[in-house]
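Objective 1.3, modelling of assemblies. Example input:
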Amino acid sequence: MPSLKDIRSRIASVKNTQQITRAMKMVSAAKLRRAQHNIVNMRPYANKILSVIADIAITHRVTHPLLSPSASPRKVLVVVVTSDRGLCGGFNANVNKFAERFHRENSSKYETLDILFIGRKGADYFRRRGLKGVDTITNLAREISYVLAASIAERLMKSYSEGGYDEIRLVYNEFKSAISQNLVCETLLPIDLSRATLGSQTDSKFSKDLLFEPPPEEIVDDLLHKHFAVQVYRCLSESVAAEHAARMTAMENATNNAKEMIGNLTLTYNKLRQASITKELIEICSGAEALKG
Amino acid sequence: MFTLTLVTPEKKMLTDVDVEEVVVPAFKGELTILPGHAPLMSTLGIGVLRYRVKGSSAFQSAAISWGYCEVNPRGVNILAETAEATDELDRERIEAARKKADEMLRSGKLTVDEIVKYQRKLRRAEIRLGMLNKH
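Predicted structure (tokens):
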């Protein structure tokens, strides 16, 4: 049976924890707003680049190695995007479990299946299971900037061309809403234009006699690299937004749990207090009875 | 008169601004676009974008690095990796960046990739400083 003092200190410590989780929730909410803002701002740029590539590729019949999907990829690189910090519910666990299953089920199908980690949590998880990634990128700044994403994209592009991968896939949490994230496994390279081309065939504003400077092949090459960087930026931004959303929900739950726990503890505390008062009264009464004799 | 739109991955700088003249740093040199320009598609280098808003005689400018520009009958669309208006530039930061790039280039122990990277940085810093000095 815990003493009254024990329970009092328990209540105080739970209250402290509750304060921390509540503060973390507020911080995450503020960061989430900023991350959402980022995603919205990036959309026009991303859409525009894709539609221009599609337009040029169609009207000028440009072919490019990055645009031709290989029918049976043999060397695949999986990029696992997690967060650097924990305390965000199932956010990292979902990604890690999916990546692990993917690796287990498909490693026999491909000649090589390498993993690259972005974020510390994924790298830690796989290291404990004895799987080593080809590269680990951690300590991302708190906010993903385009410059940072572009440098990561450059590294990926380099390993695509030099490491001889046929396909690069990205596993990350997509931001759906503040309470739900969606696990996505997306093929980033080679670039699939089929989605964009459908839309642009009808409303292409391009005329055949457009002036190009430099020639269309070079522009497409440049644009494809930028498009890839933008895609990486988009995925990382989504992941960051999802992380903050997940942390916000997790902290909200933690705060509620703490509240419930404080309620229960207070109830036990009061019961115990009453019991001890009753006990003391009985002792006094029975003492008096005994003296009366 | 035509419209100018400038978009970067991080923000939308200008949306359908009515302009009379735009000077873009195309990859082979500056390119002036006046109303009625033929449809054109060009990549842009590191440099200064200047534009004259309708009804004013002074140019406004923004420092941009890599981008591409599309001219169609309605106006000019520019997608740039980064774009900063003159009043957003911070002289101290640029000078620090320039000094660092310069030192790195002089140190003589860089790989080819790094040399290209720092040369770009140096050029970017110099163009920005030039923009500030003119202002």
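The beta strands of chain B are 2-7, 12-26, 29-33, 40-44, 47-53, 60-72, 75-85.
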